[in-house]
Design goal:
57% of the residues lie in helices and 4% in strands. By secondary structure, it is mostly helical. It has one domain. A two-stranded antiparallel sheet has the order 1-2. α4 crosses α7, α6 crosses α7 and α8 packs antiparallel against α9. The two termini are 18 Å apart. Bound molecules: zinc ion. Zinc ion binds next to loops. The site of zinc ion has 5 residues, from loops.
Length: 221
């Protein structure tokens, strides 16, 4: 993989329909993960995340058979790179007889959870970051449950702890990392954006994050 490609191919906007892109660092993490779904790259990583994530096996009011077909659509959309196009994904789900509202809800929720699983795997395999915060979308639509998870993780917790907090706050109703349908919350490293940015400016590598090295090189080159 050419490093230059990694930073230019997928626009920030492509992620925004299903997840909060917290900052440039988070964008880099997402890109690094989702790039593995692009045809010319080795797909083993993304296939493993897909397998481990498992989409919901029965959507509300939908039979198990049809739910499995919806999940095939989601999987194919990810592996083909079509996930960047919300309308395309939603229409494919609608083609299975699901109304638009539910199709959108399924696509946004499942992709958001998948994005957080991608973050998890990238952090594990590419960095030494082990403490995380839960970040809500910064608008008035954010619900109390998401705010509560964000509040309880504001100083940074392990992923095991974060999952436990989500479970406790939602009474076990969460869909993976998403506390409710249409939740776009993100898991991010527990460091403040400012710390990272300051370190970049000073030319230091913050928190032994390996691939920041690469980004700094590219920005200077
Ligand atoms: Zn949320």
């Amino acid at each position: 993989m050419r490093l230059k490609d990694l930073f230019t191919e997928i626009g920030k906007e492509s992620f925004k329909w299903f997840t909060t892109v917290v900052d440039d660092f988070d964008y880099l993490v997402l890109k690094k993960g989702f790039h593995r779904a692009v045809r010319k790259y080795d797909k083993d990583f993304i296939k493993k995340v897909l397998e481990d994530t498992r989409f919901w096996d029965k959507y509300e009011g939908v039979g198990k058979g049809k739910s499995a077909l919806i999940n095939k659509v989601l999987e194919k959309s990810i592996l083909s790179g079509d996930w960047v196009n919300k309308e395309k994904v939603v229409r494919r789900i609608m083609a299975l007889g699901i109304d638009r509202k539910q199709a959108e809800m399924i696509a946004v929720t499942e992709l958001a959870n998948f994005a957080n699983r991608v973050r998890e795997e990238i952090y594990k395999s590419e960095t030494r970051v082990r403490y995380f915060r839960y970040i809500t979308e910064d608008d008035v639509r954010v619900c109390e449950k998401c705010r509560e998870v964000a509040r309880r993780t504001s100083k940074g917790v392990s992923l095991e702890r974060l999952r436990k907090i989500i479970y406790d706050v939602t009474g076990g109703e969460a869909r993976g990392y998403q506390t409710h349908p249409l939740c776009r919350c993100a898991i991010v490293r527990a460091y403040m954006k400012e710390d990272i940015m300051q370190s970049w400016e000073k030319g230091k590598v913050p928190s032994a994050v390996k691939f920041i090295n690469k980004k700094v090189e590219i920005e200077r080159g």
